[in-house]
Automatic annotation (TrEMBL):
Domain of life according to the entry: Archaea
Matching Pfam families: Cyt_bd_oxida_I (PF01654)
GO CC entries: cytochrome complex; plasma membrane
Transmembrane segments: 20-40, 60-81, 93-114, 126-150, 285-307, 319-340, 430-455, 464-484, 517-535
Topology of this chain in the membrane: Multi-pass membrane protein
Molecular function terms, GO-annotated: electron transfer activity; heme binding; metal ion binding; oxidoreductase activity, acting on diphenols and related substances as donors, oxygen as acceptor
Protein name, as recorded: Cytochrome bd quinol oxidase subunit
Lineage: Archaea, Thermoproteota, Thermoprotei, Acidilobales, Acidilobaceae
GO BP terms in the entry: aerobic electron transport chain
Major localization listed first in the record, in broad terms: membrane
Location relative to the cell: Cell membrane
Keyword field: Cell membrane, Electron transport, Heme, Iron, Membrane, Metal-binding, Transmembrane, Transmembrane helix, Transport
PANTHER family in alphabetical order: CYTOCHROME BD MENAQUINOL OXIDASE SUBUNIT I-RELATED, CYTOCHROME D UBIQUINOL OXIDASE
Length: 552
């Protein structure tokens, strides 16, 4: 609550949270269907085509609601956080525009696949199912490109040295690599710039490459939206005397200068690849898809396995056993991937480029705070995983609490306020470790079930383990949400790390409490309707224990 704008952030949490819960099934179920169809072509067993049909049916059900909630999320971004698009819309357009085509492909393929299932040959189904998961993965990657940039902008130079354990705030870090056009650079006093820890890194044909402290960047973004001109800006302190005396230059809006610098920077990196060059892009895509696969696997496992508890028809039980064993093994594989590969890469990116967030994850050295890392003595493991050596130093949150307030305080030199002194909230320590503990528990559970399958005892699994199937599916969703919460809350107070804080981006039309409540109720109703639809069109037909005909 102390970070401000709680009602507006609450609206985003509800909207994006519901959408993410649904979206994961669109990322995972069609991929599972594709694998089932490949097994069908290998074995010629029609049960695998039946399994694929059920998974495609589930995809079609959740996609309809997922598309609607996704539209609301994008509309909410425009209306609730309008300045984000104003600031980064120029280079955000390519992945967002590309995502539209991904969405069109999803709509065409998923509904062609479902409504045309009985008229399609197995090979045609396989091709369409391939695009049914490639479309959402492609769409997700485009959306994640924007979020990854908000987490770690391209060209960010971090502010922590894990080898020495030193924070580099005194040297102006973290910094953003920007290209200052020659027309602007020629007006600046290089000596004054260097005294403010702006580092000249090289030149291009039309500009100067500079590492600029994010405190200065954030201040200029604030001035841009506040309507400052150069004679009101901190920039007047680094302009040459000849530029200061030019009345025409003095009246130039800061927004024009910032736009010119960012345009030059984006061209330097490549206008189409700028967002994709964020160090967070590849790990985020891997981790997001992994979350979708994991949630889908455990949910399918719960559905097929729970039906086994009451099935009577012997032939239908054979079909369910195949689907259940497939879901169990699939879930074990993807959760290992999610934890040991995708999750690891995500953690490394956070540790190297967002050390304040990583410090909050660990919660070390905070008086009166029960840190999960300290409680479980995970320090050596975290050092090895994050930095590759036991001699590394983990960032200490307690140290930040006493020194962080000086970061961004430009007033001694420039006489102006600086960046927000808020640190990421310590609640992310609990969210992060909840995700880890839940993930380990799910992995152990999937491993136990896989053990029964490996020893050909799938039809004799004790009912105790089967009763845990639904809780495990819920736990998979909770684990995903905890990871998402740690990721987003850990970026506070930044909206775009190193560029824009909450105060820079918030709408002036703040939603009232009743509006937030109405919005939340609407999403609850939508979610309940989706649950009923899944029950009505997937669970109820399965109770008849009649196998679908398979066309060849």
């Amino acid at each position: 609550m102390d970070y401000g704008s709680w009602s507006t952030r609450g609206m985003s949490i509800v909207g994006i949270g519901i959408h993410w819960g649904i979206l994961q099934y669109v990322l995972g179920l069609p991929f599972m269907a594709f694998i089932a169809e490949l097994i069908y072509f290998k074995t010629k067993d029609p049960d695998w085509m039946r399994i694929a049909k059920v998974l495609v049916k589930g995809t079609a059900l959740v996609f309809a609601v997922g598309a609607a909630t996704g539209t609301l999320v994008e509309f909410g971004l425009i209306t609730v956080w309008p300045r984000v698009l104003t600031a980064v819309g120029k280079w955000l357009y390519f992945p967002m525009y590309a995502e539209v085509f991904a969405f069109i492909m999803e709509v065409l393929v998923i509904y062609m696949l479902w409504y045309g299932w009985d008229k399609l040959s197995p090979k045609a189904r396989l091709v369409l199912t391939f695009f049914a998961f490639v479309g959402p993965w492609y769409s997700g990657a485009m959306i994640v490109a924007a979020n990854a940039y908000m987490q770690i902008p391209t060209g960010l130079i971090p502010d922590y040295n894990a080898t020495t354990g030193q924070w580099l705030y005194a040297e102006g870090y973290p910094k953003l690599t920007l290209v200052i056009p020659n027309s602007i650079a020629s007006l600046l006093n290089v000596t004054t710039l260097q005294s403010l820890h702006v580092q000249i890194m090289g030149t291009t044909s039309d500009g100067v490459i500079a590492a600029v402290p994010v405190t200065i960047v954030d201040r200029l973004v604030y001035e841009s939206f506040a309507g400052y001109t150069l004679n009101q800006s901190i920039l007047k302190l680094v302009l040459k005397p000849s530029a200061l005396n030019d009345p025409g230059l003095a009246a130039v809006p800061v927004l024009n200068v910032v736009n010119s610098i960012m345009d030059s920077t984006v061209r330097y990196y490549n206008i189409y690849l700028y967002l994709f060059e964020s160090p967070d892009f590849a790990p985020s895509v891997m981790h997001s898809i992994g979350a979708g696969l994991t949630v889908s696997g455990f949910t399918a496992m719960a559905g097929f396995g729970t039906r086994l508890l009451s099935v009577k028809d012997k032939r239908y039980k054979e079909y369910l056993l195949k689907a259940f064993k497939f879901s169990v093994v699939f879930s074990l594989i993807v959760i290992i991937y999610q934890g040991l590969i995708a999750g690891h890469e995500m953690g490394v990116a956070v540790a190297h480029y967002q050390p304040e967030k990583f410090a909050a994850f660990e919660g070390l050295g905070v008086p009166g705070f029960t840190s999960i890392a300290e409680l479980l003595h995970t320090g050596p493991i975290e050092k090895l995983l994050a930095y590759g050596t036991l001699s590394a130093h983990l960032p200490n949150y307690g140290y930040l609490m006493t020194h962080y307030s000086g970061w961004g305080n430009l007033s001694p030199t420039l006489g102006v306020p600086g960046t927000s002194t808020y640190l990421p909230p310590l609640i992310v320590d609990y969210a992060y470790y909840a995700m880890v503990v839940f993930g380990i528990a799910l992995g152990v559970y999937a491993l136990i079930l896989t053990g029964y399958i490996a020893f050909h005892r799938a039809d004799r699994i004790p009912r105790f383990w089967l009763y845990l199937l639904v809780p495990a599916a819920v736990l998979a969703q909770l684990s995903s949400y905890m990871g998402w919460a740690a990721r987003e809350m850990g970026r506070l107070p930044w909206v775009v790390y190193g560029m824009m804080t909450l105060s820079d981006t918030i709408t002036v039309n703040v939603p009232p409490a009743w509006g937030e409540a109405l919005f939340s109720v609407f999403y609850i109703v939508i979610g309940a309707a989706l649950v009923y639809a899944v029950y009505r069109f997937l669970w109820v037909p399965s109770k008849r224990e009649v196998l679908d005909e398979v066309t060849y």
